[in-house]
Request: fold
Amino acid sequence: MKINFNFKRFGALMFLLFIQTAFAQGITVTGIVTDKTGMPVPGANIVLKGTKESTQTNFDGEFTINAREGQTLVISYLGMKSVEVSASKSVKVKLEDASNELEAVLVVGYGTQTKKNLTDNIARVTAKDIQQVPVSNFQNALVGKLAGVQVTQTNGKVEGGMNIRVRGAASISAGTQPLYVLDGIPLINDDDDSSNGAATNPLLTLSTNEIESIDVLKDASSAAIYGARGANGVVLITTKKGKEGKGNFSINISQGVSEATHKKKWLDSKQYVELLQEAGRNVDDLESVEDELEFLSQGTDWRNGAINTDWQKEALKTGYTTDADFSLSGGDEKTKYFFSGAYNNTVGIVDSNSLERITARSNLSHKVSDRFTAGMNLSFSRSAIDRVQDDNSFVTPLQSVAQAPISPARLADGTANPNTEYANYLLAKDNSFWKTIMRRVIGKVYGELKLFKSLKFNSDFSYDLLTQTEDYWQGKNAPFMATDGAVFASAQNSESYVFSNYFTYDQTFAEKHNLNVVAGMEFNKYNRRYQDVNSIYFPNDSFETIDGGAEVNEGHGSQTDYAFVSQFGRLNYSFQGKYLFKASIRRDGSSRFGKNERFGVFPALSAGWVMSQENFLKENKVLTYLKLKASWGKLGNAEIGNFASRQLYQPNPYNLKSGLTFDQAGNDNLSWEKSTQTDFGIEIGFLDRISFEADYYQKDTDGLLFEVPLPLSSGTDLINKNIGKIRSNGFEFTLNTKNVDTENFKWNTSFNITTNESKVKSLPNNNTDIINNFTINRVGENISSFYLVEYAGVDPANGDALFVKNVVNDDGTIDRSTTNDYSKAKRIIAGNPFPTLMSGLTNTILYKGIDFTFTFQGEWGASIYNTAGIYQSTVADYFDNQTADQLNRWQNPGDITDVPQARFGGANGTQDSTRYLDESDFIRLRNITLGYTLPKQTVSDMGMSSLRIYATAVNLLTFTNYKGYDPEARRDDGVGIGEDFYSAPPARTIALGVNINF
Reply:
């Protein structure tokens, strides 16, 4: 049979069939990407797997892309877990946070690295961990969040300094604070030329609203890239950047109220008079006691309690906080921008202490071409602080608790009472002010050039300018004023610029070998200038500036600088994602070091084995991740002063003639303190819901900086030398769990615990003890251990204070008998000023639109010495008001108590001893936040993309047996370690706020 076949018709039919099939399979995918709370995620990347086709979500989280049914879409966003979904006409994707997951990208210094490829020990907090916490400095928001990092606020003043120790103390006499790096800029953090007596905190100039993340480099492998400045750890602060997509405008406003976390109980007028009279009778001096009581009462009926002044209530007030900030961010494929501004007004809990700060930031980047990107970061801040004197000053508010409650705070006409036992701080409040203004400009311009596909070159120029002015005015009625008024004015300018250039090579070979290499150089120049002037004899109190005085009687000035020049390199290698290796080296040279030790080399090595990638564990459904890691490296501490190695002379004028005096012996071999650190760790994941990290670390610091005595014939009595060793070691544990993970209800927990022990291994002069007022550095003991006579309570027969002798007997044993003669008792090591155990627990609960977060923080093993105890807890040894526990004094033979008999001027147990040493263990509800995000449709009708209202609190509850104001409060005058001296407790703050996004 003959068949006629028309090829033209068949071809046309097949072509139509192909076109029809193609159109049937090709679809336009529309979708929306949100986070776990339902908020849109702008700027998320959508890639058609296996192709180069991609797009990004707009401001509302929406996207459109052409695909074929069955193809796979890969949706990703920085800081969130990537998701793969099948292409369909309508797609809804919910991304989950990956801040604690292996996909998280961490900043490691001159680059970034994913956590799964990390062999270092780096702790991180992100913006969501610190935002909307009502504190005046970002450091306070880190408390309890990071294993191995202790954050302590000095006291409750608004400008109070912060002490941050990473894995314990790494020095005795040099600096102990970490290096802070903001967007690659090493920040000025150790400058304080305040004449107030208490240091200001330079990092107070930063606002939390501009921070994207904070990464703390804890081990040598991570910190060695910063060489001579990394021994105390490195804190890398990354500010927020713009993202591609529709612009986002955010406003946050909150208002809070503050009060002291704790107040002591003091004697009222009746109790005070009764105790003083008893103390006077016990030494047959009642008449002189009552004469003074008559004076202190200012003619009022002190016998019947006519005046009962609560001086603590005068000193500690209700504080207020106002926070308002905004940000605008967005961009397109070429240009990305982020602008922000913030305002903080904090009225402190300490009378006459307040802070007003404004900050602004602009971050811009522009893709000039496919190979070149340029950008600029610029920030400005101004912090105006109304200050009170340091803790060791009679006119600081907290020392007013020493005043007699029978003394009126003010007279009938409202003026401050000038006839109190000590200077009435209200006279200073009414007739003086101390204003400090800190201004800061931080800028960076940078360029990134892609030389080849795998090689790029970065060049950064950074500048940090910190200025501080002080104006201290005292009117003619101010305390201790003898010159009809005085004005002190000072100005400090510190500036640092950094020029960095480095190459980055990143390449994968044969889909198995990944190599990342960074190599570059850096130059850092710093200088500071300080000047002050004092003027006296003012015509009246209307003149409050230098030019109003008749005589400019004093002035000072100084200038200092230093420079660092560095070369650095780092290599990261991974094989099949399971065998990891890293090596880094930095060579630092600094003008701070002696001319024979100008340069130092700081190497580091680390390795990791991802065992869960091995065949015998790869398919395990329970043990989903397992990594072993170890690191070793050498670091330095260059915080030894700018001229510690130099031979110095100082001006010494006489009879209006100038002259020079030999001041410091030079040491050409003086160098940085050297720290060798070792770290062993394990990371474990279970069921993709539980992650656990454990690390053991050891830090050995050698070449401690000490002032070594010289013969008087040398012309000076001391020389700086590198002598001495200390060791810090301990364990760190971090546990993260997803307790509940459903669409409407999520509950995550993060728990960390750290142990630390820092001991002296060797000291100069054949390991001779170094003794300060109340502390000692002794080989084999904790750094700066408390060294005190041991208090033994009270002799029940006569009320004498007793002390343990602790002398060595002839047979070598210790005589533990007691004596009432303080001079016969020997000092012992009685406590540790640093905690040996620290912990933090954070829970985050999300239920539909409700979010609830709280953090507990705890510290154990430390002690605090109350240096003011010899005045305020002495059973009326003098006219200072006494703590309420002194009512439990010995009065009759047979009384069992630890408070001696009241003896006015009798020094019965008032000597420095363990009587005033107390354990400072505590658990604190550090912060708690409850928020509610309104439904999207509701706020959309109001023209918003989201609206969240929240309530938050800081230091809400504290559980402690510490008898003082607060287990974290320390004196702020730079004297002593671990001491409390009329130190204000931190504030308990409760705030309400609203966050709006457009």
In short: Confidence is low (pLDDT under 50) at residues 1-5, 13-24. The longest strand covers residues 551-575.
